Amino acid sequence: MTAAKPDNGNKQRTIFICQGTGCISGKSLEITEALKKAVAEHGLPGVKVDFTGCHGFCEQGPVAIVEPEGIFYACVSVADVPEIVESHLRDGKPVERLFYKDPVSDEAIPYHKDIKFYNMQQRIILRNCGRLNPERIEDYIATGGYESLKKCLKEMTPEQVIEEVKRSGLRGRGGAGFPTGMKWEFCRNAPGDQKYMICNADEGDPGAFMDRSTMEGDPHTVLEGMTIAAYAMGSSEGYIYIRAEYPLAVKRVRLALKQSEEKGFLGDNIMGSDFSLHIHVKEGAGAFVCGEETALMASIEGKRGMPRSRPPFPATSGLWGKPSNINNVKSLATVPVIIAKGADWYASTGTEKSKGTCVFALTGKIANSGLIEVPMGIPLRKIIYEIGGGIPGSKKFKAVQTGGPSGGCLPESYLDQPVDYESLAAAGSMMGSGGMVVMDEETCMVDIARYFLSFTQAESCGKCVPCRIGTKQMLDILERICRGEGQPEDIDLLQQLGENIKAGSLCQLGQTAPNPVLTTLRYFRDEYEAHINEKRCPALSCVKLISFYILPDKCQGCGICLRNCPAECIAGDKRMVHVIDQEKCVRCGTCLEVCPERFGAVVKVSAEKVDVPDEPIPVTAEKPAASAT
Amino acid sequence: MIPLAKDNLTKADVQDKLKGIFSHYKGNQEELIPILQETQENFRYLPAAAMREIADFLHMPESTIFGVSTFYAQFKLTPLGKKIIRVCRGTACHVRGAAKVLAEMEKQLGIKAGQTTDDMEYTLETVACIGACALAPTMTIDGETYGKMTTKKVAEVLGDSSKA
Ligand SMILES: Cc1cc2nc3c(=O)[nH]c(=O)nc-3n(C[C@H](O)[C@H](O)[C@H](O)COP(=O)(O)O)c2cc1C
Ligand code: SF4
Ligand code: SF4
Ligand code: SF4
Ligand code: FES
Ligand code: FES
User: Fold this and answer.
1) What percent of chain A has pLDDT over 70?
2) What is the pTM of this model?
3) Do A505 and A394 share a domain, yes or no?
4) Chain A contact probe: residue of B28, B133, B138, B151 with most A CBs at under 10 A
5) Residue A435 within any structural domain of the chain
6) Among the atoms of ligand 1, which is closest to the Cα of residue A511?
7) How far is CA A5 from CA A2, A8, A15, A45, in A?
8) What is the three-class DSSP state of A259?
9) With contacts defined as CB-CB under 8 Å, which chain A residues touch B136?
10) A to B CB pairs, distance under 8 Å
11) What is the CATH number of the domain that holds B24?
12) What is the C-alpha separation between A172 and A331, in angstroms, rounded?
């Protein structure tokens, strides 16, 4: 570690504060201001305060990195600023208590490069996220940015660009995994003067945020990739379709567009060539189905965003009936790297059919929640237990969900499967855009299926009967099962409905909507059966199927639960065993949360009766030792 | 039936603001969604009178304007409260207890998701994901994000926002 010799801040250091959405919610803007002020007050000439986009480790936010040492600070607050400035930036002594702690070994880790969450990743798409100031084009240029565009314009024909991307094996990161180079070629070869290049930044999967972070953290990569794609296809007009829920991404992309135009990397005669491209930003208006290509184009045209049947494919007749190509943010962000380092380099990572890396938003019941980029083919276990640090609270892993509302839930037996398009599809799930939600023993799989169906049902555009009405039927059945009113024949009914909806829907929203139900039926049928046959929720999660009891041999009569119960349904008095009125209890779980851990008197059960008194009785339990917590 | 606001706004009431908005559009159909977005930003909802004017401006039937405004979740046909609270119900948030946060918020405000308090202070909505999933469960008040929510934090966050 750095010696504690004061260097009076003369040493060149930059502290980068994360200003991604996650860290901003943790007040990183205020931290930046406080740092600037403190650095000025201490008159530290060598110290710069700067900011970056999301590092992907938002859970530990606000995060900061001090360069050149590469010291990583987690969970920084405004109150920590004086110590960081005086101890580290002035005296050269890093603040140990702000180091990240490994959730498994509990060891404090000073350097960014030693953190498992990061050092097991391979960052291509996210290479610059958290490493440069996304609001300065100069920072991007300094990393070699826009060199790939230059190379394409000056040294490569559009056909060569397409060939290079085809050879790299890059497949669309928006979900379906269609080879990107082939898509470009279709569009290039389609007859027509006006062609449109569209970036799909709608990121509809609820639980995924890598497109958002990429746009916030490295918007120029996306623009450069998009410009290269437009050059390859011969398109002079481009659109970026961004979710309206992402205001910061919209802001940074607009700023990046302006800077790029000023530098002559966008607009007319880019870099002195005869290639021109104008990019427009369109903000979505809150419709998941608009992530689908034809719906997205309808939405850009100002219409209701409803998918249409194909053919004609967008490559021949897309936006305003012109040849169009849509790519996901991550697909485009990969392109500059492929051009810079070559197709062979890119194709050397990944599996036979799935090349390169994939980005996942690792969330849910996982210790290290955040954005990760890993080589295709990595086993799920490695992602969850090594990078993700496992399940917090020594709970048991139950399932991992990929592919968002179109995907499925995979059980423990799939943990050693490689992650790529083919393996996930074979397991009944899909790669999707990269949401990866980890679930533990407390997550009810029937409830998860119900949750996804409620989402797709609400988002169905209504054009096809199987999707519009079928999902509603499935949802009704699932809700019934969660309430404990399921019938034995419901399982077959769900299966049939699911298969019919898949077969009879026009777009992939309907075609994939049953997946969460079908996979949970396949891998977690016992949970459905417990709900239906025993009126029992094994995860103790479905509110209608659980009850709370106060154990008479543990309760100390402290009254904490009584005071906190929102339904006022706990009876008791000082030194009396408290009793819950089961009729009135709303099963909010507050009593279980607030009952002091050392008493542990409240239990949650399902389809089980616990022997408790009807009325408060005097406490008989011995007081646990005060030292225990 | 889609309930319309009983606002009695007339053409005269909306014209001035709309003029400013229309001034930077050409009047093409593709501009409908951005125009609706800007109109909603100005009025905090889409008054029927404004939609009639938009139909005129874009030379489109009023029914099309209604069709588009009712298709997208973002557009509201009734006035919203001064502050808009959105509780995330995305997958990551769901798994980490978003339902409890929402229930507590509903209780504290005395309204259900999708409603506005009688004093027009708050509108409570749910959102499919705000992209801060690593901090689940999350919510926003007027665009400001709050992460790692608990039922206990709900009152705190509401208190914060009423001071703002
Ligand atoms: C209902 C639905 C929602 C979708 N949402 C998205 C999305 O949010 N982002 C995205 O990139 N692709 C989404 N897609 C996939 C796109 O339609 C399209 O395949 C993709 O943008 C193509 O880009 P790629 O080839 O680079 O993957 C969605 C598809 C469907 C059917
Ligand atoms: S499958 Fe569903 S979302 Fe897709 S077009 Fe049909 S109704 Fe609309
Ligand atoms: S679960 Fe909630 S309502 Fe029921 S007794 Fe406990 S605190 Fe009261
Ligand atoms: S159940 Fe727990 S919180 Fe309630 S009175 Fe007994 S010891 Fe106290
Ligand atoms: S927003 Fe700061 S690490 Fe993601
Ligand atoms: S799921 Fe709630 S922020 Fe993404």
Assistant:
1) 98
2) 0.94
3) no
4) B133
5) yes
6) 31
7) 8, 9, 19, 17
8) helix
9) 363-364, 369
10) 152
11) 1.10.10
12) 6
